[in-house]
Amino acid sequence: MLDFLASQYADAVADYMSERINEYAIRASMGVSNRYSPGYCGWNVREQKMLFDFFPAKHCGITLTESCLMDPVKSVSGALAIGKDVIFKEYGCNSCNVKNCIHKSIK
Description:
This protein is mainly alpha-helical. Helices cover about 35% and strands about 5% of the residues.
C-alpha cells in the first residue's frame, strides 16, 4: 500500500509541474503537449538514459541503474513540448495499446 501511495504522490508532483508549465505557456500564447515518460505508452524505459544525457551527472540527486531505472525509485522523468502549434490531446487507458498495464488493472 505504501508503494502505491508513493507512486501516486510522485505522479501528483509531475502533474503539478505540468500545470505550472501549462500556465506559463498560456501566458505566452503557446500550447503544451501531453507529458510522456519512459515506461509508459510504449516508450522503452531504456531510453531513460537519453533524457538523463541532457543534464549534468547526478542532476537533482537522481541516478540511473544499469537497467535504466531511477534511484531513488519514486522519481519521475518525462518530456513534453511547448510551442505555438503544439496541442494537447486528451488520452487515457482507452487510447493506450499497452495490454498488461497496471493502470488498466486497477480501474
